[in-house]
């Protein structure tokens, strides 16, 4: 588990700079093209004649989990909808194979130099989804040199990089010529029609580019017949012709393409490349599998066949392209043909198979036969297209190129680059540099990255996650979509003579548990000669071959105690020197990686003794403490102070493990005899001390603010499920159990530590908190389904509600389909009582109820007023009027002496959008620590319902310290949406904790109200315009439901609860997410007049954020009504 820390560190220490396969191939070729025309001669390169004569496309795949995968998703700016790992694929072995050409090594690539060479240039990929595959890979390869402000992928598949005045694009044109498949969002036409002589529609988009990369094969092979079109689509005199031979149409299309290239390309400017056919794997008999099988279930490349060519590869199509390129060359137009067919033919295991998003969901019949719908043509990313080094040194800025681990195509391109430069550079200087390099790499005392061995390493790989790669398309996301075989991921290259870090686990027996787990996980990588016998209390494992140590340091309470003897550490009367840590810290402070834990020893005894002074000192001061919580907080303060002032922040990486669960059930029962885990999702054990977790999190957060980064490893929730995984009676006990205990096994069972292999082998880096769901006598009101009910719904008529706002009055503004009003929420296992206005008003008699937040909370306020209107006396017209006092709008039900109000405060804290009428400031500025201006207006309420989400979703926002208009105010433009939201909620929660009357005021917080501009991911548009039915798929979550922000709100509410302040979290997100049909769309009063252009495109001005009334907010109020009634 913890070995992931170590091997991640190894990656940083040994920056071996392994470059990618296909992606780097293109990069290097492009660099070559650019360098051939450059004017300066400042760069010096050296490459041997042997390398120049090396056939880069002839070789083999070598398992290499050191250099591959070569970029991390979190470092690469891929959008969420392009991330395979995020989509669930588990077997990542396909990522760790490196192409090794015969008889040569591969030079490295420098992304910075490349970006400098395309400064002011435009690079475009043109073709089908395989070229888009390559485009996505390419952006990841260059990610490290693109400044964060520039990492913005726009819908047109265009990445602009202002810092380099460069653009990298993908143009969808699967057949190169015009076809009925040219819509990049809806391109799956089965009856394919091609304007075989028309390319200008596409070509005008890319002709002026500086670098062009084409492909086009697979779309010509799908159907048995293709329709030719002469004329225009939709023309009455167009001529259509069905043909059954797609090879000839392909040849004609390539001819149209080459003719355009010949007459329209600027030959002095534009560099041209054409990809060969990418191999697919639909016929298992090609590699020795039984007939009818394909890539589904494959986990290894084809390794037993040199010069493997798949039978499905159409060499005639490749020959057509090669012939066209040859003819262009003879006409003076150079196109570089990139022959990746041979090398990709080996990789039968690297396709998405079933682990991808399909445009049409598989049918039940297909699901029973996964091979029948497997994708064996595209490639998972990271994978074959992109194997690029995650970090690399400057090359083009240096005077030599050192060979290292790079992939096939990478080297091809680099070799071409070097060949081009080699002809123009000073050979004598190159030779001198080569000699210098050979001398350097041969030094016995240096770290030779190319001399070593392969080590099985299942902790540091994969090197990036799909969900963090912003450009990854769903159809390439294998792991996210469920692939399970991951063995291929775990081989690492270990160079000789390279110093690796010292890793120390510091803490109690649970951290020793973790340390032993790590050693077991790393054991296959440790040579037999280095496997020192691990005795129970010997805590250092030196591994001379790797020049590293893995240590455990016994310090169960981190500070000094009378329990610090690792062999005799169990005194019942625990004494703690709460301010003394130096005795221990001097042993671990200089480590490279430190993993701390300390919880269990603070919870064993009800009392402990605090010591000021030294043990055995005559003037020492002892003080009994009745609980371990406050002493624990003091000890962590001592620990954090030491780290702040003594740690080498540039060297040492710090981790802190959260609390592990000790399981208990009814009296007399525990983990003994348990063989199954808890299967109930979101289970939290009753013995988990969340207050201690909060103390640790707070200490870590404060350290972070002071510049010391500690990674909190929250394993609590995941381990809470595993009541089955403790040793129970199956361990060696320090003291042999008595006969009495042996007669009653639960009395001596160990339900604290973990069996190995087991839970410690798994790690999570996320703070997995359980969502705050409500229940009413066991019924989860927020889990259920929508039921059509035109008998009891709607509960009021929008045209008859005196309080209705034009923003929500959809029927008034022309909506004819009123079915959206007639859906009732049906929780599972219970019924939601119908709203009774009279009962509600009686319950709030003499009270003040206030909604605080944005327009979504205002819509809930309007809904509540409409629900209660029939219960209000209508003796006078003024009895149903709304009164405004600044930001506060309220209605007074005189006969009940009740006030129901709404207070406009979209950020909760103060902002430049606080005017309830005019609040359209686009440059949003927030006083992140200021809430009192608003809070004094609602603090005296009896019932408060808060919301605040949607206004925080801007990509950037300005934070203000000081006052608006102050000359010394400090403004800071920030991104970090979740962090700034967290800061505002902390301000809000601090106010509540100190100022709210806890015996009087009931508090509610509404979860995020979802909007409907996209579907389950951002690659699928699902606009609310013209939607008339809810989403009926159970457990649906849309892409716009920001769970990260929900987790921030949930965590804040938990902290308040720990401090004794109860806030009821109303988790209405998922139940609302089904209702894509219930938004106003175009049927509302708009703030600004609609333009003629907008009227032509209703989606452009549709409101898919707010809700029609009657509608979804009525259900929110029904649930609120039940809470208030039962309070």
TrEMBL record:
The protein's UniProt keywords, in alphabetical order, are: Membrane, Signal-anchor, Transmembrane, Transmembrane helix
Main subcellular localisation: membrane
Q: For the Trichome birefringence-like C-terminal domain, which residue ranges apply?
A: 106-387, 502-762, 832-1121
Bilayer topology annotation? Single-pass membrane protein
* Location of the Trichome birefringence-like N-terminal domain: 53-105, 446-499, 778-831
Question: Which regions span the lipid bilayer?
Answer: 20-37, 405-422
This protein's record includes keyword Disulfide bond = no
- Which compartments does it reside in? Membrane
Q: Which GO terms describe its cellular component?
A: membrane
> Would I find Transmembrane helix among this entry's keywords?
yes
Which family is it part of?
Belongs to the PC-esterase family. TBL subfamily.
Annotated protein name in UniProt: Trichome birefringence-like N-terminal domain-containing protein
Look up and give the organism this protein is from: Penstemon smallii
The taxonomic lineage of its organism, from the top, reads: Eukaryota, Viridiplantae, Streptophyta, Embryophyta, Tracheophyta
């Amino acid at each position: 588990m913890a070995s992931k820390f170590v091997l991640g560190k190894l990656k940083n220490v040994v920056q071996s700079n392994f470059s990618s396969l296909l992606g780097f191939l293109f990069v290097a070729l492009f660099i070559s093209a650019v360098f051939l025309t450059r004017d300066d001669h400042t760069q010096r390169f050296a490459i041997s004649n042997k390398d120049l004569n090396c056939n880069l496309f002839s070789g083999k795949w070598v398992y290499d989990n050191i250099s591959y995968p070569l970029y991390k998703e979190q470092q690469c700016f891929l959008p969420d909808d392009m991330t395979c790992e995020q989509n669930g694929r588990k077997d990542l072995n396909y990522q760790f194979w490196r192409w090794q050409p015969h008889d040569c090594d591969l030079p490295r690539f420098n992304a910075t130099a490349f970006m400098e060479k395309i400064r002011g240039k435009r690079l475009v990929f043109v073709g089908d989804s395989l070229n888009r595959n390559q485009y996505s890979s390419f952006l990841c390869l260059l990610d490290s040199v693109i400044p964060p402000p520039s990492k913005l992928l726009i819908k047109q598949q265009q990445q602009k990089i202002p810092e380099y005045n460069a653009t990298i694009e993908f143009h969808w044109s699967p057949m190169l010529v015009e076809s009925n498949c040219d819509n990049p969002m809806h391109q799956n036409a089965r009856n394919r029609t091609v304007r075989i002589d028309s390319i200008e529609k596409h070509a005008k988009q890319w002709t002026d580019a500086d670098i062009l990369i084409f492909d086009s094969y697979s779309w010509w092979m799908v159907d048995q017949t293709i329709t030719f079109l002469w004329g225009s689509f939709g023309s009455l005199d167009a001529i259509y012709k069905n043909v059954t031979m797609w090879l000839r149409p392909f040849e004609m299309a390539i001819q149209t393409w080459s003719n355009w290239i010949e007459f329209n390309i600027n030959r002095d400017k534009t560099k041209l490349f054409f990809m060969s056919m990418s191999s697919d794997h639909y016929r298992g008999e090609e590699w020795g599998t039984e007939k009818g099988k394909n890539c589904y279930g494959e986990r290894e490349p084809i390794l037993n066949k040199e010069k493997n060519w798949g039978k499905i590869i159409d060499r005639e199509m490749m020959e057509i392209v090669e012939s066209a390129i040859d003819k262009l060359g003879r006409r003076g137009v150079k196109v570089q043909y990139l022959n990746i067919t041979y090398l990709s033919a080996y990789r039968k295991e690297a396709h998405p198979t079933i682990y991808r998003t399909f445009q049409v969901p598989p049918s039940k019949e297909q699901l029973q036969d996964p091979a029948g719908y497997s994708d064996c043509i595209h490639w998972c990313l990271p994978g074959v297209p992109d194997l690029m080094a995650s970090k690399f040194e400057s090359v083009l800025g240096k005077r030599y190129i050192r060979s290292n681990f790079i992939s096939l195509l990478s080297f091809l391109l680099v070799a071409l680059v070097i060949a081009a430069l080699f002809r123009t550079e000073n050979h004598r200087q190159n030779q001198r540099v080569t000699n210098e390099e050979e001398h350097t790499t041969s030094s016995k005392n240096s770290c030779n990255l190319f001399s070593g061995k392969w080590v099985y390493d299942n902790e540091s790989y994969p090197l990036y996650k799909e969900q963090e790669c912003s450009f990854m398309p769903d159809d390439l996301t294998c792991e996210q979509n469920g692939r399970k075989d991951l063995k291929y991921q775990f081989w690492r290259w270990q160079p000789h003579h390279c110093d690796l870090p010292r890793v120390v686990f510091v803490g109690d027996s649970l951290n020793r548990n973790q340390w032993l787990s790590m050693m077991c996980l790393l054991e296959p990588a440790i040579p037999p000669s280095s496997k020192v016998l691990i005795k129970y209390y010997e805590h250092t494992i030196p591994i001379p071959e790797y020049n590293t140590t893995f240590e455990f340091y016994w310090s169960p309470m981190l500070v000094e105690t009378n329990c610090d003897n690792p062999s005799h550490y169990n005194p019942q009367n625990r004494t703690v020197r709460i301010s003394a840590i130096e005795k221990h810290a001097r042993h671990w402070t200089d480590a490279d990686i430190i993993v701390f834990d300390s919880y269990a020893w603070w919870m064993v005894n009800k009392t402990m003794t605090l010591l000021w002074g030294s043990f055995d000192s005559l003037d020492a001061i002892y003080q009994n403490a009745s609980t371990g919580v406050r002493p624990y907080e003091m000890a962590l303060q001592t620990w954090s102070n030491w780290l702040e002032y003594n740690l080498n922040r540039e060297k040492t990486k710090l981790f802190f493990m959260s609390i592990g669960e000790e399981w208990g059930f009814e009296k007399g029962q525990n983990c003994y005899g348990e063989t199954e885990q808890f299967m109930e999702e979101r289970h939290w054990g009753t013995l988990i001390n969340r207050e201690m977790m909060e103390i640790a999190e707070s200490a870590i957060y404060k350290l972070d603010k002071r510049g010391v980064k500690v990674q909190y490893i929250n394993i609590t929730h995941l381990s809470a499920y595993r009541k089955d995984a403790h040793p129970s009676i199956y361990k060696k006990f320090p003291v042999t159990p008595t006969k009495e205990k042996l007669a009653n096994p639960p009395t001596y069972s160990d339900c604290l530590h973990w069996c190995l292999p087991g839970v410690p082998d798994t790690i999570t880096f996320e703070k997995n908190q359980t969502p705050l769901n409500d229940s009413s006598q066991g019924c989860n009101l927020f889990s259920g389904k929508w039921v059509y009910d035109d008998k009891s719904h709607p509960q009021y008529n929008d045209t008859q509600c005196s309080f209705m706002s034009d923003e929500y009055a959809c029927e008034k503004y022309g909506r004819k389909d009123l079915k959206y009003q007639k859906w009732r929420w049906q929780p599972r296992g219970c019924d939601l009582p119908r709203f009774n206005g009279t009962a509600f008003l009686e319950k709030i008699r003499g009270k003040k109820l206030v909604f605080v937040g944005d327009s979504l909370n205002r819509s809930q306020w309007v809904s509540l007023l409409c629900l209660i209107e029939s219960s209000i006396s209508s003796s006078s017209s003024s009895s149903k009027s709304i009164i405004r006092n600044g930001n506060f709008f309220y209605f007074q039900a005189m006969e009940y002496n009740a006030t129901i109000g709404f207070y406009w405060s979209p950020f909760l804290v103060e902002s430049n959008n606080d005017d309830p009428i005019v609040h359209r400031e686009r440059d949003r500025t927030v006083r992140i620590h200021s809430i009192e201006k608003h809070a004094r207006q609602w603090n005296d309420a009896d019932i408060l319902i808060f919301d605040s989400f949607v206004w925080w979703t801007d990509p950037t926002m300005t934070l203000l310290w000081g006052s608006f208009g102050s000359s010394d105010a400090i403004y800071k433009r920030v991104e970090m949406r979740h962090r700034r939201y967290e800061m505002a909620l902390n301000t809000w929660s601090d106010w509540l904790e100190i100022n709210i009357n806890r015996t009087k005021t009931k508090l509610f917080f509404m979860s995020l109200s979802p909007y409907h501009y996209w579907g389950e991911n951002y690659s699928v548009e699902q606009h609310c315009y013209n939607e008339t039915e809810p989403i009926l798929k159970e457990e649906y979550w849309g892409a716009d439901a920001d769970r990260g922000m929900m987790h921030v709100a949930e965590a804040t509410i938990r902290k308040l609860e720990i401090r004794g302040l109860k806030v009821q979290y109303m988790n209405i997100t998922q139940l609302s997410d089904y209702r894509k049909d219930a938004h106003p769309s175009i049927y509302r009063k708009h703030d600004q007049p609609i333009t003629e252009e907008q009227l032509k495109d209703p989606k452009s001005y549709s409101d898919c954020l707010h809700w029609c009334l009657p509608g979804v907010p009525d259900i929110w109020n029904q649930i609120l009504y039940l809470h208030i009634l039962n309070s």
